[in-house]
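Following the same procedure, sequence and fold were stored together, as reproduced here.

>
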Amino acid sequence: MKIINTLLLTSLLVTGAMAKDSNTPAPKKETKKVEIEAPLGDVQLFVSDNSDGKITPKTIEEAFKKAGFFVSANRDMNTPFTKQFKESSFDTYNLFTFYKKDVVLELAKKYPNIGLFAPMSMSIYTKKGDKTISVSSLSAEAMQKIMKIPADEKLLTDLRALVVKTLKSAMPKGKFTTLSYKAVEPKGELVTTYKMEIDAKDWDDELEEFKMGFEGELSPNGFVIAGQNNLGDDFEEKNYEGFDFYEVYSICKLPVIYTIAKSRPEAGAFAPCSLYLEKEKGKGEMTIAFPSVYNWMSSMSITDKKDIEVLEDAQKRMRKILSGLVE
C-alpha cells in the first residue's frame, strides 16, 4: 500500500510540474524590424555624399556589371547640353540603361511587353557645385502599373530588389530621399501601342523596310537612337523560340530631357524611352509600343505649361512617325 501511495504521490508531483511548465509563457521570439527600402512613389531617388568625388557614373556602371546586369549605355548628356544650349545646371548628368538578360527572358515568356523596360533607365547626376551624387530609377510598382501586370509578380519585385542592392553597393553611404511631389492622375494612356500586319513566315523584308522607314524619320523629327538591343538574339542563345524577332530602340530627344531635367533631374528614370518591336512566332502581326509621355507628367507631377508642350510635341511626333508606317 505504501508503494502504491508513493507512486501516486510521485505521479501527482510530475503532473503538477508539467502543468506548471505548460503555463509558463514561451520565450518571445525576436522579430526583425522591417525597413521600407524607399519612399513611396513611382520615381525613387538614391543620394550619396560624394565630397571626395570617388563615386562616378563609371564606378556605378562597374557595380551593375558585377551584379550581372548588361549595361547597354552610360551616356554623358552634360556635354551635349552645354554644346547645344550653351549652359547646364549640372556638373554631371548621365543617362544609364541596363537590363538583366536572364530575368528579361523569364518575364518575356509571361509578358511580351517587357520591352517597355528592357532596358531600364536611370539618371546619374550632380547639380552644379553640389558634393552629392544622385541616381533616379522607377519603382517596381511603377513598372507594374505601366505594364499592367500583377502587383505581386515576383520576377519584377526581385529584380527591383537587386537594383536597390546594387545601388547600395555602388554608393555605400547613400540613402533614398523623399521627393517633393506625389504622382497625379495621367491625362492619357501610359503606353502607346501599334499593331501592324506582317507575313507570319516571310517577315524579314517587311521588318527591314519598317526599320529603315522608322530610323529615317527620327532625325528630321529631332529624335536620336541612344541605343539598340536585340532581345531576340538573347532569347535565341537560351534556346527560347517564342518570338520571330524582338528588338528594342532607346530613343532620346535632347530638348525634352534638357528642359525637364531643369526642374526634374530625376526624369532620367524615363529616358531614353524604350520602343520595342516584336512578333510572336506564328502570328501575322508585329507589335510596336513605347511608354507615353503621360508617365512623365503623371509620375513627376509636371504642371509647367512649357514642360508639357515639349513633352506633348515629342509624343505627337512619334505617333505621327509610327502611324505613317503602319497604316
The first helix runs from residue 2 to 23.
